[in-house]
Design a protein that fits this description.
single chain; about 110 residues; mainly alpha; about 0% strand
């Protein structure tokens, strides 16, 4: 896969990142894989249902938009909200039979 991405970058004349940009990308990658996926695996090992985890992970883009709007003042247009809602609905359709909610918030607590 890396070879394919490199070939596309060379073919399109993409600008290569500086050392600083590459470092920042590496730190972000470590945070995503270490913190985000580490948290997912920790929740699974604690007994949280996979469907509940998938729904929480599916909320990540919405939370990101809310933080970007509130903290950075980014404007979110209706088309973007529609896309986020559509994505969340898709996740809900895929995992609806695996959700571990019993009418209250105890489904969010590892068992």
């Amino acid at each position: 896969m890396a070879a394919l991405v490199t070939a596309v970058a060379i073919a399109t004349g993409a600008r290569w990142p500086s050392r600083r940009e590459a470092f920042h990308s590496g730190v972000a990658a470590l945070m995503v894989h270490g913190l985000y996926l580490g948290g997912v695996f920790h929740a699974i090992s604690g007994g949280m249902p996979a469907g509940t985890i998938a729904m929480l992970v599916g909320l990540q883009p919405i939370v990101t938009v809310l933080i970007a709007h509130g903290w950075l003042g980014e404007r979110v247009v209706a088309r973007q909200w529609f896309g986020l809602a559509l994505g969340l609905a898709g996740v809900a359709l895929v995992v609806r039979h695996k959700l571990g909610f019993s009418g209250d918030l105890t489904g969010l607590v590892p068992q």
